[in-house]
Amino acid sequence: MTIPENKQNPLKIAIVGSGPSGFYASEALLKSNHNIKVDMYERLPAPYGLVRSGVAPDHPKLKQVTQVYAKIAESPDFRFFGNVTVGQDIPTETLSAFYNAVIYTCGAESDRKLGVVGEDFPGSYTATEFVGWYNGHPDYRDRSFDLSHEVAVIFGQGNVAADVSRILAKNPDELRYTDIAEHALEALEKSNIKDIYVIGRRGPAQAKFTSKELKEFGELEDCNPVIEQNELILNSMSEVELADKTNVSNRKVYELFKGFTGQPPSADKEKRVHFTFLKSPIEISGNGHVEHVKLEINTLSGDAFSQSARGTSKYIELDTGIIFRSIGYKGIPILGIPFDEKRGVIPNIDGRIIDNSSIPIPGLYVSGWIKRGPSGVIGTNRADSVATVNSLLDDLTQPFMKSEKMGSSSVMKYLDEAKVPYVTFSDWKIIDQSEILRGEPKGKPREKYTYTEEMLNILN
Ligand code: FAD
Ligand code: NAP
What residues does ligand 2 touch, defined as CB less than 6 Å away? Predict the structure, then answer.
């Protein structure tokens, strides 16, 4: 049957993932002048993706964006199906059969590999695991991190590395009144970590921190930022980079690094975050547990803004009891959807998912980190999702957009028969309120439920 979209027969669009890109895609669809029903699928009972489980607990203002998302969810044309993993609880082809189009906004939930000997040695963790753990993500609830050592090493100099090192550097009282997961606060209270080495493979002019995040290291109650003066010597291409008018961000970061070298360390502060550059891990080793990391000293080669790190065959060794690899996230394939293994993204042209011959597959779209890779802040996903929705709206004349689809009514029947206990947005609001109430006596904005079963039990 082919009927164009009309009042009786709205277009049915599914969105897979409830992070920023999923909500911005929903917003763009619902704001368009078309008669559209949007159903959002999320594998966890709780929405909001990395805004809930990535953004650091001590950055509460950034989480206020969830109020905007909750407003989008109030639309009568929007429906939320939480606790449904697309590709597992419902096959991707079944989902496609129920909708005119599906937009995949499922983020980048895995991580890049360092590719060095001993990478997965006990005591060497990914930032993804640690961040998920302190933020109460059910996947990482039962991880444990041995924080009994005095020295921690973090590889990578992006904002996730800044989050991880800042959480390790803060004293528990600086975290107590945030929405940090209870189990993480308890473990951090017992932490012995004193020295945190944040190691970049390139130089201080190429660090990917933003100045706002880096500045916080100068304001910690119990920790001094430390940089050796000679670490800030620049090669000529880096000088060109920092002199470039458009490169405001790196210039500000470099100035902050310089400020840290000039700052006499306060004697009453117990911890130190050491920023060090031009070093790559070669081997992680120890007696059954991380004890040492061998680092190769690098030099930079290439033109300004495309300089890469090259080993010099000079090595140093650092003793450490715990390592966090914070070198970028990576997408995970979903059964039935094309995947670019190398880049960890869903291949697409302008948000239209493409097959092996680069031909768009009717009715399949993508947005957010799983479209462009794991970079960009929350707001970056808005323009990205609007662009994908524009591609979708440009396709409205295509036959697959004109056939009548059953949308949520068929899905509910399917999920009921498959005995998948899906969570509606009203259900989520009950969980949300319960978390807020649990937090109140402790002075926390919320005490998160960290097991899926706990959240489902509240609803029972
Ligand atoms: P995500 O936010 O990851 O959302 C993807 C969603 O899809 C998740 O909820 C996931 O559970 C769901 N999903 C995955 N697979 C399936 C499936 N098969 N079926 C159903 N659902 C599925 N940006 C800032 O602006 N400020 C910050 O302070 C900040 N802090 C960050 C801290 C960390 C540790 C990280 C990693 C990122 C941070 N960012 C921050 C960046 C920001 O979080 C991302 O730009 C943004 O979350 C990406 O949005 P997304 O919707 O593409 O992916
Ligand atoms: P990122 O910004 O891309 O940083 C990754 C870091 O890992 C870089 O320093 C990179 O160095 C390094 N790296 C990559 N491969 C490596 C290797 N093989 N060996 C050693 N180092 C390696 O990624 P991210 O920190 O995961 O952040 C992801 C996005 O989320 C970013 O856009 C970030 O701004 C955003 N975010 C924002 C906030 C915030 O606003 N507060 C907080 C967290 C995250 P090279 O430069 O040499 O590649």
Answer: 112, 114, 155-161, 163, 200-202, 206, 208, 213, 280, 326-329, 374-377
